Amino acid sequence: MKAYFTKMKGTTTSPPRVSLSEIGWSWLGAFLGIGFISFANYRVFEKIDLLMIVGSFGASAVLIYGAIKSPLAQPRNLLGGHVLSALVGVACQQLFPSTPWLAAALAVSTAIAVMHATRTLHPPGGATALIAVIGGEKIHNLGFTYALFPVGGGALIMLVIALLVNNIPRHRRYPEFWV
Q1: For the chain, what are the domain ranges?
Q2: What's phi and psi for 106, nearest 5 deg?
Q3: CA distances (Å), 20 to each of 17, 24, 32, 139, in order?
Q4: What angle do helix axes 124-134 and 100-118 make, rounded to 10 degrees?
Q5: Using CA of residue 36, residue 157, residue 83, residue 85, what is the dihedral sign?
Q6: For residue 141, which phi and psi values (nearest 5 degrees)?
Q7: Are 86 and 124 in contact (CB under 8 A)?
Q8: Phi, psi at residue 136, to the nearest 5°?
Q9: 110: burial class by Cβ within 10 Å (0-12, 13-18, 19+)?
Q10: Residues 154/53, Cβ–Cβ less than 8 Å
Q11: 154, 135 in Cβ contact below 8 A?
Q12: How far apart are CA 7 and CA 21, in angstroms?
């Protein structure tokens, strides 16, 4: 039993501080990525009653602008993780509409399994799957379209901005891999 609890102490120290330059580039990327999608959501798509932004994009921004070397932040993971998780979430919501607690649990756990199996693990994908279940009528009415728009389209826009911003400074390179 002691060995079990000893594992919870961790094995390494905290990561080192990042430079002010790194903080600035991460901030700029996140501002532009979320800003562009938010502007489109509230100024363009709202007029035609379409949704362009989901909460899980905030967590994606942390990865693709702030942790650009992480395997979880690479394009394959960003796009595949979000789209596959959205499909799983919609399926769970449609299979269990009157049991949202079950749909939510199945959506997140199955999304994780699917992302593992397809090598597209992207932690915000779990939130994308959950949003498909708990997102309300506007999200539910999208059905499987949710996976393409707003999820796929929004993730693609954020990826383009990540490619542009993350490669401006000499010391940053994105992505590490595509497939």
Answers
A1: 20-166
A2: -65, -40
A3: 9, 6, 18, 39
A4: 150
A5: negative
A6: -65, -20
A7: no
A8: 95, 180
A9: middle
A10: yes
A11: no
A12: 35
pLDDT digits (tens, 9 = 90+) for 12-43: 888 899 999 999 999 999 999 999 999 999 99
3-state secondary structure the chain: CHHHHHHHHCCCCCCCCCCHHHHHHHHHHHHHHHHHHHHHHHHHHHHHCCCCCCCHHHHHHHHHHHCCCCHHHCHHHHHHHHHHHHHHHHHHHHHCCCCHHHHHHHHHHHHHHHHHHHCCCCCHHHHHHHHHHHCCHHHHHHCCHHHHHHHHHHHHHHHHHHHHHHCCCCCCCCCCCCC
Low-confidence ranges of the chain (pLDDT < 50): none
* pLDDT confidence of residue 68: 98
pTM: 0.94
| Distance in angstroms (rounded) separating the CA atoms of residues 162 and 179 | 17
Give the per-residue pLDDT at 125: 98
